[in-house]
Write a structure and sequence with these properties.
334 residues; alpha+beta; 6-stranded mixed sheet; 5-stranded antiparallel sheet; 9 helices; 11 strands
């Protein structure tokens, strides 16, 4: 892991050294970015997790995707619109905070379809946990999933975003993609908001990669390319990315090792205090105080606790701390 981080608060370092959680070694002992963990099935969601807006209200049940005739010609569309465009119009588009999806149109039937991947319980719940009474560990409602439904809402994508044709594929390729989407959806089940890397430099080490709507679209493009699709050139393909900037992360442990009966009570308390300012449903005064608290922890104390793969990491934050980019990632080409 390289040299031990020196910017970690002295009290936290002492606690971690005492419990044996802070271990230094060579960089080759840790794979960066940390691989996103996949699962063999999708678990049931906890009834405590409630969405303000229903997930995939018009989508097919059980992830069903209709098959096309092999000889069909399917047009593939890049879809992008500001996050929560249905409620705030193009407001978040001014900050380049965009949602991505992909569309399909059957030449034989004339039917359109939309595929997208997003949070089951909205972005805030995927980014920060709930601190529930009587529970020592933070409680996460951070599942994400694919939604496939008939139709493309042209007005939604065109008015403040993008609806552009990027490729044409056969019905046979589409059917292979449909099988892949179901497999991908059943094994990749948790949303991850942040990309964490060392600096703004182009070749900076990525510690953790995001897993969100844009990554779903990029995975589909790559799969289509593997299946033989040829993409059109000169189609702008920018994506929103939310960055945290950090020195080399320090592994803290999983939920049971930190919050269990034999866990680290001091570290558990620090993590709970860290997440407390991010709690939902705050009054305006509470929100202002929380913003000051967040600024103090992340910027002044250079501290961020990241939850990834059911494990907690300490991030020694560094300038510029947080950044939102709208980066171009070209379509696959031969």
């Amino acid at each position: 892991m390289g040299r031990c981080v020196q910017t970690m608060p002295q009290r936290a370092v002492a606690v971690l050294l005492w419990t044996g959680l802070l271990v230094c070694g060579t960089a080759g002992e840790r794979q960066w970015p940390v691989p996103y963990r996949r699962f063999d099935h999708r678990p049931m969601t906890d009834p405590y997790c409630q969405a303000q807006y229903t997930f995939c209200p018009t989508g097919y049940a059980d992830g069903f995707i209709p098959l096309m005739k092999n000889e069909d010609v399917i047009e593939v569309f890049r879809l992008q619109a500001p996050v929560w465009e249905f409620k705030y119009g193009d407001l978040l588009g001014h900050f380049k905070i965009m949602h991505d999806a992909i569309g399909f149109r059957s030449t034989l039937t004339g039917k359109n379809y939309t595929a997208e991947w997003y949070e089951l319980f909205q972005l805030g719940n995927c980014t920060f946990p709930h601190l529930r009474p009587g529970m020592s560990q933070p409680f996460w409602c951070n599942q994400g999933a694919a939604c496939f439904f008939e139709g493309i809402d042209d007005q939604h994508w065109k008015s403040n975003g993008t609806l552009a044709s990027v490729a044409t594929i056969s019905g046979s390729i589409f059917n292979q993609l449909a099988k892949w989407i179901r497999e991908d959806n059943n094994t990749g089940i948790y949303y991850e908001t942040w990309t964490v890397q060392g600096s703004l430099e182009p070749n900076s080490t990525v510690w953790f990669d995001s897993y969100d709507c844009s990554k779903f679209v990029l995975r589909i493009y790559e799969k289509l390319f593997q299946l033989g699709a040829t993409f059109k050139r000169n189609v702008p393909t920018n994506y929103t990315r939310l960055f945290l900037f950090s020195g080399e992360p320090v592994y803290l442990g999983n939920e049971s090792s930190i919050f269990g009966p034999q866990g680290n009570k001091s570290l558990a308390s620090d993590i709970q205090k860290f997440y407390f300012p991010y709690r939902p449903h705050q009054s305006f005064t509470q929100l202002l105080l929380s913003i000051l608290d967040i600024y103090g922890k992340a910027i002044l104390n250079k501290t961020f606790y990241l939850y990834y793969n059911f494990e907690y990491w300490y991030l020694p934050m560094k300038p510029p701390y947080v950044n939102i980019t709208y980066e171009e990632i070209p379509l696959p080409s031969r």
